[in-house]
Write a structure and sequence with these properties.
The complex is a heterodimer of chains A (185) and B (899).
Chain A: H1 7-15, H2 19-42, H3 52-63, H4 70-100, H5 122-135, H6 137-149, H7 153-160, H8 164-182
Helix pairs in contact in A: 1-2, 2-3, 2-4, 3-4, 4-6, 4-7, 5-6, 5-8, 6-8, 7-8
Chain B: H1 10-24, H2 28-39, H3 43-53, H4 57-76, H5 80-85, E1 89-90, E2 93-102, E3 105-112, E4 120-126, H6 133-147, E5 157-162, E6 168-173, E7 177-179, H7 180-186, H8 191-210, E8 223-226, E9 231-233, H9 238-248, H10 253-259, H11 267-270, H12 277-293, H13 305-314, H14 320-333, H15 337-349, H16 354-361, H17 364-372, H18 384-395, H19 407-417, H20 421-443, H21 447-466, H22 479-493, H23 498-514, H24 518-536, H25 541-556, H26 560-574, H27 583-598, H28 602-618, H29 624-641, H30 644-662, H31 667-682, H32 686-704, H33 709-724, H34 728-746, H35 751-766, H36 770-787, H37 793-808, H38 812-829, H39 835-850, H40 854-868, H41 874-898
Antiparallel strand pairs in B: 1-2, 2-3, 3-4, 4-6, 5-6, 7-8, 8-9
Helix pairs in contact in B: 1-3, 2-3, 6-9, 8-12, 8-18, 9-10, 12-14, 12-17, 14-15, 14-16, 15-16, 17-18, 19-20, 20-21, 20-23, 22-23, 23-24, 24-25, 25-26, 25-27, 26-27, 27-28, 27-29, 28-29, 29-30, 29-31, 30-31, 31-32, 31-33, 32-33, 33-34, 34-35, 35-36, 35-37, 36-37, 37-38, 37-39, 38-39, 39-40, 39-41, ...
The chains are: A mainly alpha (185), B mainly alpha (899).
């Protein structure tokens, strides 16, 4: 363990321009997210919700050192949020292809929130985010960090190098855009 | 694919952004108009932006829900790790399957492989290898100790060791059960059933404590309930073993620290202090909290460990019932159907409605849980047994031990934090006020009303909580800010409970009055009055009370017309009960007398105050202060009438009543000393007056502070004394100081400013500063004109002096009408031989003499000397001077005629 660079070191390297650091960081977070989730699910009580943002937060608590700066914290969360998005979307695509082969039922929206049809699943959300990125990449990023990382305005602002006021404005429009895109699904 | 989607290029999108940002600041009504104007013919753009603005919030909730659901299934499929362990050997045990995992490692179901016993066990496998043999020895001893713990509700620890790889493991009784909270929910256990189950757990914890073992990590995941309903505590003392293990492994102490789930830590654990049996009492409190309320005491999601630690150590605990109320409020405000459904589910799991659940928890159960969760270990239940006992008392409907932190305790803590004596004093006043509200509400003795009282208390707590230094870090909060915030919260948060709202507004209004913040007081009481009228109608005694209090404020603000109206309305209601002789009636009369006195209606004032005294004398035991006040007022009236001996008698009586019943530091001592000093001065007893006024100033500063109205008044009295003694410069300085202080307190153009300017005019006159004297006197009259009855004696005083100044300036013709008007006013209230009448007539005589009307002037001046002759004061001096001048003028006139 002692020979592997710490998350803090990787974050700092990444921030100072070392692309490899991100490549090393992502799997670390990926593994940890899975581990935390597994633990939660095995001791989970029925009906309790397991939130992506809570997992990301716990990964942070476990992986990062206590004296992490605010900047590094924001960057950690942004990596973790993107990782979380990929984990969930990969899973969703796998389930879709299984389903086409007659597999299990899809992950649907909460009952009663959608009138009829099969509802939106994670892949629809991912697709919409990708479409938004084509129009306005920054707003798509803000949404990812918000929904998958549960990041505060200040953290998002730091990670994307914009002001917190911009985050607020972007988020309002982006949320409306996403809701608009998904509501007729 | 989407009817609401349009082709968006970069340019178009930035236009959308712009329109959306602007329109979202507008009200829905304004939006359409704005978009119509901004989009022009581009209907597609307008419709698109408008559809974005109408985006359904429930879709957002569903997006989050989709993500949550996906997390569940995406990660739930992950069983690979457990697969790898299957069939492996740990010591003599063969792993069957994964049971769960925790901070300290995985737990597997295993079977003894040597088939010596046909026994399933749970094996907890550590994360790290042990490198230090000493640590291994210590762990073995600890395990031995724990293995001695035998109790039907505690899972046994059988064995332990290290694997061939050097990883430590524990072998424990395998409990086939479900988590206690899941068990309770699945079986829809009622609150009582949950409490009984919880008592069993307390007993098990108590047993362990008697065996000197502390659990350290009591939480619902560590308590399983078997099929037959027996709860079993897992992992007793394991946290300590794991800690030892964690610290023993090099470089990974942080892992060890994470073992205790931060949200489940007690303050002493978070701070690294001694862990005792009280720590487990705290853990039990957390458990009971969530078993009852369905939520944990804090929302710890999305918080860093540092923030959680701060919450645990600093924040006030929200009671379970309050927490439910908040959750519901948040859900409704956020229009969050998921959260609302969660609340419904929590209540359904307890076989009640959400409303009933909240009511059920409120009160005793809140208090029981909060006692277990107190930050200071010594203030929790002494033992797990004591905790269970108190629950037993609750279940038998007996009085419980747990009580909400007492007012005294809270006040003590608050004062301890804020050393400012002012804040402390204000707090005490607020608390007394609120306590009265609570008591009066409780006296109605109806369950519903008691709840109201509790809400009031909770509300106040919130106000104080907001000023807890841990919440408002680094900001020093003044008493005034607390009050202002309290007032604001009452206004904005209590709209749904007008009866509480009006009671608290009344309280804060009275506090403001006592602090001399009359404007704020008026605003609060005015609102309290309107609300109270809406609730109880116009002729309710409570409404009469607020009217009276509001009138008192208005008197201070010199709003005499409205004050009179309010007092008469209040009196009319109060006279209907108790034969019209209640203290309320006496108070109304007393206040009315003050209004009449202030507006120059002496007869009305005297009649009112005498009626008031007649009532207060009968109930002197409880209303000593009020009696003294009324006597003081009568003294003032008699003083204006010129009955100085009777005035002095009344004042001395008032002083005796106050000092006998209240001691030397009562504010009224300052008032009556001032009155007595003035009286002595006007009786010509200058040395006594000087002494009394000195005492009065000292008492005022000591008792009431440096910015009090009375200080301004007493300073003026001192100025008048200096004036009499001939030290005009000093007199002017002191009086101007008093005028500035008065403006600071009352704002400009208060009647008292007029009075003080009249007094200053006299000094300036004697200084021969005629221009300034005229200016301040005219200012004085214009202030009176705004506030006073046109026949008020103050007006006569100012007119008299202005006439005298004009005489001195050689403008006797201008002085004449002013003095004639002054004499008319004087004669209305006073007999012809009264000093004030005569003194004004002397100035008029001087005018007449200056104008050459010697025959008319002479009797006035001679009468002046005769009447004022016994007094060594300014009036006699002015009369003498005027007579001398008369004689000179007459002589030169006679000489002129003869020549």
């Amino acid at each position: 363990m002692s020979s592997t660079p710490t998350v803090t070191t990787l974050l700092r390297d990444w921030r100072s321009g070392d692309k490899r650091a991100l490549e090393e960081l992502t799997p670390l977070i990926y593994d940890d997210l899975r581990r935390i989730a597994a633990r939660h699910l095995q001791s989970e009580r029925s009906g309790h919700t397991l939130q992506a943002t809570a997992l990301v937060n716990e990964a942070f608590v476990r992986l990062a050192e206590a004296d992490l700066s605010f900047q590094d914290r924001a960057h950690f969360f942004s990596v973790a949020a993107r990782t979380m998005r990929h984990i969930l979307t990969d899973y969703g695509r796998a389930r879709r292809s299984q389903k086409r082969g007659g597999g299990a039922s899809p992950v649907t929206l909460h009952e009663g929130l959608v009138a009829d049809g099969e509802g939106t699943d994670i892949v629809d959300i991912d697709d919409a985010l990708t479409r938004l990125a084509e129009i306005d990449a920054r707003k798509s990023d803000v949404l990812v960090l918000h929904y998958f990382g549960g990041m505060t305005f200040d953290e998002t602002a730091e990670a994307l190098n914009i002001s917190a006021a911009t985050v607020d404005r972007d988020l309002r429009l982006a949320k409306a855009w996403l809701a608009n895109e998904l509501k007729d699904n | 694919m989407n009817s609401k989607t349009i082709e968006l290029n970069a340019e178009r999108w930035s236009r959308v952004e712009e329109l959306f940002a602007h329109a979202s600041e507008l009200t829905p009504g304004e939006r359409a108009r704005y978009l119509d104007g901004a989009c022009g013919d581009d209907l597609e753009l307008r419709d698109y932006v408008s559809s974005l603005l109408k985006a359904d919030p429930s879709v957002e909730a569903s997006i989050e829900q989709t993500i949550v659901n996906t997390v569940r299934v995406a990660f739930g499929d992950d069983t690979s790790q457990a697969e790898q362990m299957k069939g492996q050997m740990i010591g003599p045990y063969r792993v069957e399957r994964l049971l769960g995992s925790g901070g300290m490692g995985m737990v597997y179901l295993a079977q003894r492989a040597d088939e010596q016993f046909d026994q399933q066990v749970a094996i907890k496998l550590g994360r790290h290898r042990l490198v230090d043999p000493q640590t291994e020895l210590r762990l073995r001893n600890e395990r031995q100790f724990l293995a001695n713990l035998e109790h039907p509700n505690i899972a046994r620890l059988y064995d332990g060791g290290t694997t061939s790889d050097g990883v430590p493991y524990l072998v424990m009784e395998y409990i086939d059960g479900v988590r206690i909270d899941t068990y309770c929910d699945l079986n829809r256990l009622t609150i009582d059933e949950r409490l009984r189950l919880f008592q069993t757990i307390c007993a098990a914890v108590h047993y362990a404590h008697q065996n000197l073992i502390i659990h350290r990590d009591i939480k619902s995941t560590n308590i399983l309930v078997t099929k037959d309903g027996t709860p079993k505590l897992l992992d007793f003392g394991i946290a300590k073993l794991s800690d030892a293990e964690g610290t023993a492994t090099d470089g990974l102490t942080r892992e060890g620290a994470v073992i205790m789930t931060p949200a489940n830590g007690a303050p002493e654990q978070v701070m690294g202090n001694n862990v005792t049996t009280a720590t487990d009492v705290y853990g039990l409190g957390l458990l009971l909290y969530s078993l009852l309320a369905g939520y944990r005491v804090y929302d710890t999601d999305n918080r860093t460990p540092g923030e959680i630690a701060l919450l645990i150590c600093e924040a006030e605990r929200t009671s379970p019932s309050r927490r439910l109320l908040q959750k519901k409020k948040d859900a409704v405000e956020d229009r969050n159907p998921v959260a609302l459904q969660e609340l419904e589910q929590i209540a359904a799991n307890r076989s009640v409605s959400p409303e009933r659940l909240q009511r059920r928890l409120r009160g005793d159960l809140d208090n029981i849980v909060l006692k277990a969760l107190r930050k200071e270990p010594t203030r929790r239940y002494r033992s797990a047994n004591a905790f269970a006992d108190d629950i037993g008392r609750y279940l038998r409907s007996m009085p419980i031990v747990a009580r909400k932190d007492s007012w005294r305790y809270r006040a003590g803590k608050f004062i301890h934090r804020h050393f400012a004596a002012v804040a402390a004093a204000v707090l005490v006043v607020i608390m007394l006020g609120v306590f009265t509200v609570v008591l009066s509400v409780q006296n109605r003795n109806i369950a519903e009303e008691r709840d109201t009282a509790r809400e009031v208390i909770q509300f106040l707590e919130e106000i104080f909580m907001a000023h807890d230094p841990s919440r408002a870090r680094g900001v020093d909060v003044t008493a005034a800010e607390i009050l202002a915030e309290g007032a604001e919260r009452i206004r904005s948060n209590l709209g749904s409970r007008p009866e509480i709202q009006s009671a608290l507004m009344g309280t804060i209004g009275r506090v403001y009055y006592n602090l001399g913040e009359y404007q704020a007081s008026e605003e609060m009481l005015e609102q309290a009055l309107q609300r109270r009228i809406q609730i109880d109608g116009d002729s309710h005694p409570g409404v009469a009370e607020i009217r009276n209090d509001l009138a008192e404020v208005l008197i201070r603000r010199a709003e005499y017309t409205r004050a009179t109206e309010l007092l008469q309305q209040s009196l009319a209601v109060n006279q209907l009960s108790n034969d019209g002789t209640s203290p309320q009636v006496a108070t109304n009369l007393f206040n009315l007398a003050n209004v009449y006195l202030a507006t120059g209606k002496l007869d009305d004032a005297e009649a009112a105050v005498r009626s008031s005294i007649a009532i207060f004398v009968q109930i002197q035991d409880q209303f000593g202060i009020e009696l003294a006040e009324a006597k003081g007022s009568l003294a003032r009236i008699l003083q204006v009438r010129g009955d100085l001996d009777q005035t002095e008698t009344l004042l001395r009586e008032a002083i005796d009543i106050i000092s006998a019943s209240q001691g030397p530091d009562h504010p009224y001592m300052a008032y009556y000393l001032q009155n007595l000093g003035v009286l002595q001065r006007s009786k010509g007893n200058l040395d006594a007056a000087e002494k009394t006024l000195e005492m009065a100033i000292e008492a005022t500063r000591r008792i009431l502070g440096d910015e009090h109205d009375l200080l301004a008044v007493t300073l003026v009295d001192q100025g008048m004394l200096l004036h009499i003694k001939g030290d005009y410069d000093a007199a002017e300085r002191v009086i101007r100081q008093a005028i500035d202080l008065g403006i600071q307190i009352h704002g400009p153009r208060h009647p008292r400013e007029g009075l003080h300017k009249t007094i200053l005019g006299r000094v300036l006159h004697d200084k021969s500063d005629l221009a300034n004297a005229e200016a301040v006197l005219r200012d004085s009259l214009s202030i009176y004109d705004e506030h006073l009855d046109e026949r008020h004696q103050y007006i006569a005083s100012a007119l008299t002096e202005l006439g005298a100044v004009l005489n001195s300036a050689g403008r006797a013709a201008e002085a004449r009408p002013l003095l004639e008007r002054a004499i008319e006013i004087r004669q209305r209230d006073y007999p012809p031989e009264h000093v004030l009448v005569v003194a004004t007539e002397v100035e008029y005589g001087d005018t007449l003499a200056r104008l050459g009307h010697y025959d008319e002037a002479e009797p006035l001046l001679l009468n002046g000397i005769a009447t004022l002759g016994g007094r060594a004061d300014r009036r006699l001096a002015r009369a003498t001077e005027a007579l001398d001048r008369f004689r000179d003028l007459k002589k030169s006139a006679g000489a002129a005629t003869t020549n």
